[in-house]
């Protein structure tokens, strides 16, 4: 990989601040601005795979969360809220869509009639097992510009930053 400085839109913004307000340190924009722009670009690339399977980003998140938990591929709605890190209202909307599509089912918990369980249906399991390999291949493709060592370093640094922000 080249060690030349990166001249992109974010660098242009920092250069403008350096010219207009040399008393300010605008260097955090180099990281935060790039993270933000990369995040938006990655989301656009990721949702293409989800869309190819008739799913939105949130739908895929719920299905993948249920699938990666292993058999019997079920969780409570509150577990889904915790594991997907969205509000209960957002999970409810996702579950309504997925249930209407026949990909998940909601049923009464065996031990507590007040409690509900969300489970993948056979169709949901089959769709998830088709979509996840494509999703992972897409993520690998998106990371191809980085060496394995760079990916490991970036993962470690993003983990450290995320931990400091409680995410």
Automatic annotation (TrEMBL):
Alphabetical UniProt keywords: DNA-binding, Transcription, Transcription regulation
Q: Where is the HTH marR-type domain?
A: 28-163
GO terms in the biological process aspect are: response to stress
Q: Cross-referenced SMART domains, in alphabetical order?
A: HTH_MARR
Asked if the record carries the keyword DNA-binding, the reply is yes
User: Any idea which GO molecular function terms this record carries?
Assistant: DNA binding; DNA-binding transcription factor activity
Its domain of life? Answer: Bacteria
Q: Which InterPro entries does the entry link to?
A: ArsR-like_HTH (IPR011991), HTH_MarR-typ (IPR000835), MarR/SlyA-like (IPR039422), Tscrpt_reg_MarR-type_CS (IPR023187), WH-like_DNA-bd_sf (IPR036388), WH_DNA-bd_sf (IPR036390)
> Matching Pfam families, A to Z?
MarR_2 (PF12802)
Q: Which PANTHER family match?
A: TRANSCRIPTIONAL REGULATOR, MARR FAMILY (PTHR33164), TRANSCRIPTIONAL REGULATORY PROTEIN (PTHR33164:SF104)
State the protein's name.
Answer: DNA-binding MarR family transcriptional regulator
- To which species is this protein native? Humibacillus xanthopallidus
Taxonomy, top ranks, is: Bacteria, Bacillati, Actinomycetota, Actinomycetes, Micrococcales
